């Protein structure tokens, strides 16, 4: 319960900070009602949290606690000190999430699940938490396997979960950074301008900039695009086949993977 409270506290705090940031210095004008989108996007977040509790008896942090207790996993076998295993865990898990994200774009069946995230026609802080429940469960299973194999310490998994959720909200924010600051930050982490390219309706741009936290993976694995073809103000965001306003309703979002229209 304490771990969940910590995670929830960081989620609310980062959501609040990014929301204020978007209001003060917005990057793009919104095309739809913010209240309408937010109520459905955040409703989906609540549904996903409940689904994880029901479907998975152990989450990634719970598995880390078990592997620590049982001495299972590479880090435990090597008896790595905490000061070393924590940053390596964050590094490895972030790479795993990069490849998971890339896989969800390249495998047609998985793309049908993930495209619900891309069907948001405005991109803002809530888009960073808008994922189909089936994708959320699959993502958690992938993290569980990775945590068990490397024997990640629980504190490292908690730190990574906070970083992953926080960076997703940060880099989906509809907020403006100066060109110089963006250029500096994206040498290490994914910025809103870098990730916004990923939400383009142009498929080549959509299939790029997969990183969530560290920006190095896209450069290392050849999936980096610096700027959108039509510029950040001129680019179109979303999925062409799901452009009707009612597609932003939670019931429509949940059925998108199973519909062609």
UniProtKB/TrEMBL annotation:
Main location (coarse class): membrane
> Which key words tag this protein in UniProt?
Membrane, Transmembrane, Transmembrane helix
Family matches, as InterPro entries? Fatty_acid_hydroxylase (IPR006694), Sterol_Desaturase_Related (IPR050307)
Entry-linked Pfam families:
FA_hydroxylase (PF04116)
* Annotated Fatty acid hydroxylase domain residues: 88-223
GO BP term, pick one? lipid biosynthetic process
**Keyword Transmembrane on this protein?**
yes
| GO-annotated cellular components | membrane
Compartments reported by the entry: Membrane
Q: Which residue ranges traverse the bilayer? A: 6-24, 45-66, 78-99, 140-164
Q: Which GO terms describe its molecular function?
A: iron ion binding; oxidoreductase activity
Recorded protein name is Sterol desaturase family protein
Please state the span of the N-terminal signal peptide per the UniProt entry. Answer: none
């Amino acid at each position: 319960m304490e771990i969940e409270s910590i995670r929830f506290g960081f989620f609310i705090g980062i959501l609040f900070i990014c929301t204020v940031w978007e209001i003060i210095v917005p990057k793009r004008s919104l095309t739809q009602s913010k209240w309408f989108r937010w109520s459905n996007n955040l409703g989906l977040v609540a549904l996903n949290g409940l689904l994880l509790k029901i479907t998975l008896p152990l989450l990634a942090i719970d598995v880390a606690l078990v592997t620590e207790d049982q001495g299972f996993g590479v880090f435990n076998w090597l008896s790595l000190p905490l000061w070393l295993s924590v940053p390596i865990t964050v590094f490895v898990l972030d790479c795993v999430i990069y490849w998971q994200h890339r896989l969800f774009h390249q495998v047609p069946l998985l793309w049908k699940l993930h495209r619900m995230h891309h069907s948001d026609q405005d991109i803002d802080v809530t888009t960073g938490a808008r994922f189909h429940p089936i994708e959320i469960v699959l993502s958690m299973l992938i993290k569980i396997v990775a945590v068990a194999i490397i024997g990640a310490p629980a504190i490292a998994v908690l730190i990574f979960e906070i970083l992953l959720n926080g960076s997703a909200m940060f880099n989906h924010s509809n907020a403006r950074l100066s060109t110089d600051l963006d250029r500096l930050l994206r040498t290490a982490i994914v910025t809103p301008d870098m990730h916004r390219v990923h939400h383009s309706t142009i498929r080549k741009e959509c299939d790029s900039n997969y990183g969530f936290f560290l920006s190095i993976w896209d450069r290392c694995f050849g999936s980096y695009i610096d700027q959108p073809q039509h510029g950040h103000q001129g680019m179109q965001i979303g999925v062409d086949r799901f452009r009707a306003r009612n597609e932003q309703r939670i019931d429509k979002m949940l059925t998108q993977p199973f519909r062609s229209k």
